[in-house]
Amino acid sequence: MKRFFAAVLTISFIFLLAAAARADDAKSEKGAAKTKQVKAGKITLNVPASWEQKPQGNRLRLAEFEVPATGDDTEPGEFAVFYFDGGAGTVDANVKRWVDQFDKEGRKEKIVSGESPQGKYTLVDLTGAYNKSIGPPIQKKSKRLEDWRVLNVMLQTDSGDYFLKLDGPKKTIAAVEKEFRASFGGKKETEKERKLE
Fold this sequence. Notes:
The protein contains three helices and ten strands. A hairpin with a 2-residue loop joins strand 6 and strand 7 (about 120-135). The strands form two sheets. The protein has an eight-stranded antiparallel sheet with strand order 3-4-5-9-8-7-6-10, sandwiched between helices. It has a two-stranded antiparallel ribbon with strand order 1-2. By secondary structure, it is an alpha+beta fold. The chain has two domains: about 1-30; about 35-195, Protein Transport Mog1p, Chain A, CATH 3.40.1000. It has helices at about 1-30, 90-100, 170-185; strands at about 35-40, 45-50, 50-55, 60-65, 75-85, 110-115, 120-135, 140-155, 160-170, 190-195.
């Protein structure tokens, strides 16, 4: 009789553990943000499904997404991927150009380097008054945006350098910084601070 009750208790315990595991799986699936896979040239991005893909603006802009505004931000963010056939200069030259797009006064900057499955990368995190380029670069037109944040990435792959840019109001960008890194396989915990040479 004791063996019978022990067997019943053991089976009940196993069923309870299985039910708890299924509940945890369902909970984690529900909490996980849905993503979509997008090809941009020869790289693959995994972006949140809520980021609306826009038509390709020109042959240099391989992909573009609108990032929904967060909290009381009134403007959405923008995520764009660029590729230049003949290259676009050294890492340091690009970093300097990105930094110079912000007013020096009140500018905050952080430069790090890391490695993703798609290649090595340099990420430049900038906050402040941003002079965003409008229209073709040859026109040299820009729009000044206060309290703006831009994450620029130069991703060095076997098929060339890709440039990823996420910009928008500070709160909106802060809310999706993790998803931005995940989109190309970057990992914040393994990045190292980088100085301009």
